[in-house]
Sequence to fold (399 residues):
Amino acid sequence: MTFEEMWAELLPVGRSASSGGYRRHAWNSADAECRAWFEQQATNRGLAYELDRNGNQWAWLGDPRGDGAIVTGSHLDSVPDGGAFDGPLGVVSSFAALDELRDRGTEFTRPLAIVNFGDEEGARFGVACIGSRLSAGVLGREQAYELRDADGVRLPDAMERAGYDPAAIGADDDRLRRIGAFVELHVEQGRYLTEDQPIGVASAIWPHGRWRFDFHGEANHAGTTRIEDRRDPMLTFADTVLSARQQAELAGALATFGKVAVEPNGTNAIASLIRGWLDSRAADETVLTELVERIRQSALRRGEQDGVRVELTRESYTPVVDFDGPLRDRLAKRLGGVPVLPTGAGHDAGILASAVPTAMLFVRNPSGVSHSPAEYAEQADCLAGVTALADVLEDLACQ
Ligand code: GLV
Ligand code: MN
Ligand code: MN
Ligand code: MN
Fold:
């Protein structure tokens, strides 16, 4: 099956007819279809299929218990109303690169694996990269058991309902120890690869995290409550959003409120509670910490003025990731001196980098749009990505 055929098979899975975007959220039915697709691709190629203790899927060429394995892959889940490329491009390219290497008659001296990490986007349980975090021991089993989705469903229950056994979730040291290198191919998510640069290599991932602001006010009648009697958390929230943007610009960093929940969410009622989720990222950890603190101080100040109590909870945090230097240089050299660039987007590769020599390849994104149905990459660039990945895997798995 060619790259184009695999792409066409995955394209309709979990796609909204109205927006064209995807809702492949962890353990939902679209995710299950993607997982079935992955398993089918593995068995079609005679690869050994394996589901690990955290629900990540593996397809092995060579001995899954062998040492120094070269692993590639990405994820198949999406953000709410996400694009087609973020995640799937890496998985489809991995199968296509393996096919290309078989066509070349490459003889591997190390095991090679393709992986689909579960719940990379964190769209359902609020923490990104759950599959890789669990495996790397960065997310503890007890913490994972407490995660709930918007309907109150706990992560282990969601796994169980989808037919997976959550009993064994936790750090997978043995598996990670046997990996010699992990390379994730991903669509670039900004507009940082220019006209004559279809492929890049990642240098680093900015530190980033998610914080939940709870603004507690008082529900009351929209038509009868005097202005001076109101404790309206919407005002505090709105002011905090503006302040976050201002502070981020001053710091040369990023701060985004992209998700909000309102209680009771009635048009003719002052809200009692606003929950706003802040995603913030910066090139430097100190800058990021100071930025979030400044946003918090500003929310507290405004809350006092509005009679609104403000609480802040950090839901996840990923420190700066500097990818393995020798591996990064080796990839860039093998690909003929392609650009080396940092990214503000999180990836499973960033999580694995704490345990395994890890690198990333980026495929050009002409518009720079991502986490949106409009996300796009040219077919020619995707195919260039497949060849680049094949070249890199050949270099690594035949030594
Ligand atoms: C994941 O794509 C992230 O960077 O939030
Ligand atoms: Mn993403
Ligand atoms: Mn991704
Ligand atoms: Mn991501």
In short: The first helix runs from residue 3 to 10. Residues 3-206+320-397 form a domain with the Aminopeptidase fold (CATH 3.40.630.10). The mean pLDDT is 97. Residues 236 and 301 are 9 Å apart (CA to CA).
